Amino acid sequence: MRSAELVRRAAALERWILPGSCLLCQEPVGPADPLVCDLCRSRWRRLPEPLCERCGQPRRLDLPCRLCRDWPDILVRARSAVWLDPPARRAVHSLKYEGWHRVAQPMASVMEPSIPGGRDWVLVPVPLTAAKERRRGYNQAAALARALAGRTRLGFRGELLRRVRETPTQTALTPQARAANVAEAFLAGRCAGLRILLVDDVFTTGATLAAAAGALAEGGAAAVAAVTFARAREPLARQG
Hints:
Elements: H1 3-17, H2 38-42, E1 75-83, H3 86-96, H4 104-111, E2 121-125, H5 130-136, H6 140-152, E3 155-156, E4 161-163, H7 175-182, E5 186-188, E6 195-203, H8 207-218, E7 223-231
Parallel strand pairs: 1-7, 2-3, 2-6, 6-7
Antiparallel strand pairs: 4-5
């Protein structure tokens, strides 16, 4: 049986198995996308202008941005599609912890406009450790990167970056502690001359992206940018 036919049959089976309701609000939806309805997508709130040109954090007045001042030079740009408000948080949790891989597709659709221009970027997901990925069964950042690759035709190189050290959760840490927590957590393969676009689900302080970019610089990357689905609203990212 041809692969296209297998994909068609798998999609039909999925539509039959999945409930005809939105994953986020449980309201009935049509067969076109049984996971996230248009209303829930409309509740994903984009970040307001003006943004810091480098890290994408909303800015206040003309004060210098403190969030990205200590980033490695190679990390030239980061953007997030929406705020990590409850509607977006539900999508993140569905993808990250509940095994709903296909929610990566609507999430990628709102991330796509945040991708920098040019066709030479290579999509690289922020990795989990091998042990954690085995326990979870997949990497949510890789699901998002593959969805973006399908939408943009940019290359996907999931093997270029590895997480070599398990790190405690970043949730309750200060910015300084986050940076220390992920220091030397990543190892990059040979990526000489590549322009790499890191992909992740949530941006909090940027410490993980900065550590990953530093490893990619050691591997020879020419430039690193980043795109995430959501951005946490944290007082840790104050300007001034």
